[in-house]
Design goal:
The structure holds two protein chains of two kinds.
Chain A (H helix, E strand, L loop, with lengths): L6 H21 L8 H9 L9 E4 L3 E4 L6 H4 L6 E3 L2 E3 L4 H4 L3 E2 L15 E2 L4 H10 L14 E2 L3 H13 L12 E8 L5 H21 L3 H7 L3 H4 L3 E8 L7 H11 L4 E3 L8 H9 L4 E2 L15 E2 L5 H15 L7 E7 L2 H14 L6 E7 L9 H6 L5 E6 L2 H6 L10 E7 L12 H4 L2 E5 L4 H17 L7 H21 L5 H11 L26 E5 L7 E3 L7
Parallel strand pairs in A: 8-9, 8-10, 10-11, 11-12, 13-14, 13-15, 15-16, 16-17
Antiparallel strand pairs in A: 1-2, 1-7, 3-4, 5-6, 17-18, 18-19
Chain B lengths: L6 H6 L6 H9 L8 H6 L3 H19 L6 H13 L9 E6 L7 E4 L4 E3 H5 L4 E6 L6 H16 L7 E6 L7 H10 L6 E5 L2 H10 L13 E5 L6 E6 L3 H13 L1
Parallel strand pairs in B: 4-5, 5-6
Antiparallel strand pairs in B: 1-8, 2-3, 2-6, 4-7, 7-8
Helix pairs in contact in B: 4-5, 7-10
């Protein structure tokens, strides 16, 4: 019997989602939207009627709908930024509807004159700016600013919306302190937990120690950079029990002490409840060290290093298609733990190969204590065609497989995951090791060692023991990029602006990372996009050697 | 070959030029060196140099609306009578240059590998650099390309339009495909991506690499055919501007 998706069901579903969202934000109300119609024009380029907004950029380039939405340039926060040499002015109400000084100072500072002052916008001058591109002083706006075809009522809605936009400091910021948290889920080894916490606490100590005089400067001085100073406070939110209960625990932590953002964090299994919390409470969750991020791409506030095991599955898929030319029709056997997370990479690889090749993909879900029957592999990979075996298992699970000493003859390669094996060569019988390859979404040791020398020097200077390299590098990157973004915010304690700054600066961030190249952009949520496939040199431990290019699925 | 003529401008980033810089240029525009190609195409070296300096001001005066520019405006109007060239007031800088196209393999929006050199060796080319999550600049440039395509009508098959991603790791062939659909790119308009290194090599070759994609600046490149110099339009050239340049280039 088929399931028919009717519009009625669709409406019910949509209603349910809406209720959930409202309920979530009612717990700790975010800023109420001052004008939903204004927001729709601003963010989506849609009028109340559902018709697209229409506008013209210089010389007749017509834009409409989403392409004409204010958010494209002025971003969600309305606090502006820049792209290339085009400055994007802040338009949040408290800045737009007050007098602004247009900064023109350079090496030869220009004495302040009437020409450098922009009078406050009013509703009428806002209308003129939107329709004709003329500011309240009568000057033409930047040529990139579209000229909008908007009626009086619509402009009034935009006016109201801008008035409420980024108008108050986000929760977690007091006059003297700014609160952050980090999150540790159950199932994380104590080594990794302390590796991360050591780095974050060291960073916070530096931050507050190095700026302790700024408390006094803030009180006497008028310079904006001092006014923004707050002492940084780190809260460690430890989660307990089943993932279904984490949401409630996070809400309780947050109600007790709201935080401006979550820095780093470490997940041993699911991260979905944390993702849902960040999204519902509009809390930026910056670069946690996790293998199972939400990859649906619907989040705004959570930022991740990679798409985790899903990325690994697709990198492997791409590698198989590129290398396995002779056997596009061969067999791929996937062994994975038969639970929700264990199935993820297997589903990812199957989905990637489907439609791109005619390979036979055979799934072998393994029960909690399951082993591979001795005759299973020879049976599948025999029959004269070389087979590929993928083991989506962690190191302990791989050891527990208790593989036969001799790998089946028909077996061409065995693939394992670097994330699940802690980036180390698993211990397998010798004949298996010769066929072993690993999906490796990290920088290779030789090249990352140079960059991570900085991490090591940083740790040594603070008497922090060297721990898990990935955990420590990721924690320091998350903390550093947070620090850089905060210094850009100055007194604009807007979480949207914070996210926008990180989107903009991640590519140029100087902090070392374990990935070859991190980069975000407007709306991008995964900073590292690819991976290598490696084999291991023989000898003690084995060094990963790339056998593929940096593959981006 | 480097476009030496742009060095002064590039070194400072046009938008960051201060009043002092502009005075310097106004007083002594001959201090802007130009490359051989520009000299070949503008035998009156001094006039060409001067004209280029004036165009820099055009960009500035449009962008910096509040800048005290009365003196420059006068200068501009004065020169305008003497050099009635197209697009002086359009806010872009036109220059000519030769570029060595790196011999790299890129991918089109179907994921097929293409050699950039041989790809560009054929029909007249109109080329730009974009990325799909870009908010301010690229939508305008891509809409402009879309308008060029529409204005060309059936003639569009005689030209090869190319948009190269400067965010290649995010702009997979699939991402480019939906971007191409958004701007209704016809078969003559190709979107290319590739490895980060290859994308950077191409950006460097065209002198548009600015380190971080968020620092990128709008530019359009046109070439009549293999071995010919490129016309470079820095700034926002409109569809009409691009078409005029294209016609001028291909009518010779």
């Amino acid at each position: 019997m088929g399931c028919v998706f009717t519009p009625a069901i669709g409406r019910i579903l949509a209603g349910g989602i809406l209720l959930l969202t409202l309920e979530a934000s009612a717990v700790e109300p975010a800023d109420a939207v001052s004008s939903p119609v204004g927001q729709s024009i601003y963010r989506d380029g849609l009028l109340a009627s559902g018709e697209p907004v229409r506008a013209t950029v210089q010389k007749g380039v017509a834009l409409s709908g989403a392409a004409a939405a204010c958010v494209n340039c002025h971003r969600r926060s309305g606090l502006g930024g820049s792209e290339g040499q085009n400055p994007i002015r802040p338009i949040a109400g408290r800045l737009l509807f007050s007098q602004a000084k247009l900064e023109r100072a350079g090496r030869w500072a220009i004495p302040s004159s009437d020409a450098s002052v922009r009078p406050p916008y009013t509703r009428d001058s806002l209308a003129r700016a939107l329709r004709e591109g003329i500011d309240p002083a009568g000057r033409a706006l930047d040529a990139l600013m579209p000229r909008y075809d908007l009626g009086d009522a619509e402009i009034a809605q935009v006016h109201t919306y801008l008035n409420g936009l980024s108008s108050t400091a986000a929760p977690g910021v007091t006059d003297r302190e700014i609160h952050f948290s980090t999150i540790v889920t159950p199932g994380v080894s104590s080594d990794r937990r302390s590796a991360m916490l050591d780095v974050l606490q060291g960073f916070f100590r530096d931050k507050n120690g190095g700026t302790r005089k700024e408390t006094r400067r803030r009180e006497v001085g008028s310079e904006q950079m001092y006014r923004a100073f707050r002492a940084w406070v780190l809260h460690v939110w430890e989660l307990k029990g089943a993932p279904e209960t984490w949401g409630t625990q996070l809400e309780a932590y947050y109600r007790q002490q709201p935080v401006f953002a979550v820095i780093g964090g470490i997940g041993g299994s699911s991260w979905q409840p944390v993702h849902a919390f960040c999204e519902a409470f509009e809390v930026p969750c910056v670069f946690p060290d996790v293998d199972y991020p939400d990859v649906a791409g619907t989040g705004y506030y959570p930022l991740y290093f990679t798409r985790g095991v899903t990325l690994e599955a697709e990198v492997l898929g791409k590698h198989l298609l590129e290398t396995d030319l002779s056997s596009k029709t061969g067999t791929v056997v996937q062994v994975y733990r038969d639970n929700a997370l264990g199935r993820l990479p297997a589903q990812g690889l199957r989905a990637y190969l489907q439609g791109r090749s005619r390979k036979t993909v055979i799934d072998y879900p393994l029960a909690e204590t399951g082993r591979l029957p001795a005759d299973f592999l020879p049976g599948l990979t025999g029959m004269g065609r070389p087979g590929t075996l993928v083991l989506w298992l962690d190191s302990a699970e791989l050891a527990a497989l208790d593989l036969a000493a001799r790998a089946p003859d028909g077996l061409a390669a065995v693939y394992v995951s670097a994330s699940l094996s802690a980036m180390r060569r698993p211990s397998l019988p010798e004949t298996w090791l010769s066929k072993l390859q690993m999906v490796y979404p990290f920088d290779l040791p030789a090249s990352r060692e140079l960059r991570l020398a900085r991490l090591k020097a940083w740790l040594r200077a603070r008497d922090i023991p060297l721990g898990d390299e990935r955990t420590q590098a990721n924690a320091l990157f998350a903390a550093t990029v947070t620090g850089e973004a905060m210094s850009h915010l100055r007194e604009n304690f807007s979480r949207d602006y914070f996210i926008e700054r990180i989107e903009q600066m991640t590519q140029s961030a100087l902090s070392p990372s374990i990935y070859p190249h991190l980069s975000l952009g407007p709306g991008q949520r995964f900073a590292s996009k690819g991976g290598y496939v490696v084999r291991f040199s023989s000898g003690e431990g084995g060094t990963p050697v790339a056998i593929s290019e940096w593959l981006i699925p | 070959m480097n476009r030496k003529g742009e060095d002064i401008v590039k070194g400072h980033d046009i938008r960051n030029l201060t009043e002092g810089d502009i005075k310097m240029l106004t007083i002594n525009p001959e201090r802007m060196p130009i490359d051989d190609i520009a000299v070949r195409h503008h035998p009156e070296r001094h006039a060409a140099v001067r004209l280029r300096a004036i165009r820099v001001f055009t960009v500035l005066s449009l962008g910096l609306a509040s800048f005290p520019i009365s003196a420059i405006a006068q200068e501009h109007q004065h020169d305008h009578h003497h050099h009635a060239m197209p697009s002086e007031q359009d806010g872009y800088v036109r220059s000519m240059a030769t570029y060595t196209i790196p011999d790299v393999k890129l991918q089109d929006s179907d994921g097929a590998g293409v050699s950039l050199r041989s790809e560009l060796d054929g029909k007249p080319v109109i080329l730009n650099f974009i990325f799909t999550t870009c908010g301010a600049i690229c939508p305008v440039m891509s809409t402009t390309f879309s308008q060029v395509q529409m204005a060309l009508g059936s003639e569009r098959d005689t030209v090869h339009m190319v948009s190269i991603s400067i965010d290649p790791e995010h702009d997979t062939p699939a991402a480019l495909k939906s971007y191409a659909e958004k701007y209704r790119a016809g078969p003559q308009w190709q979107m290319l991506t590739g490895s980060l290194d290859n994308s950077i090599a191409v950006q460097r070759a065209f002198d548009v690499y600015r380190g971080d994609k968020m620092n990128h600046q709008p530019a359009t490149f046109l070439r009549a055919g293999p071995g010919q110099p490129w016309v470079r339009l820095d700034g926002f050239a409109s569809a009409a501007d691009i078409l005029r340049e294209y016609r001028q280039l291909t009518s010779n």
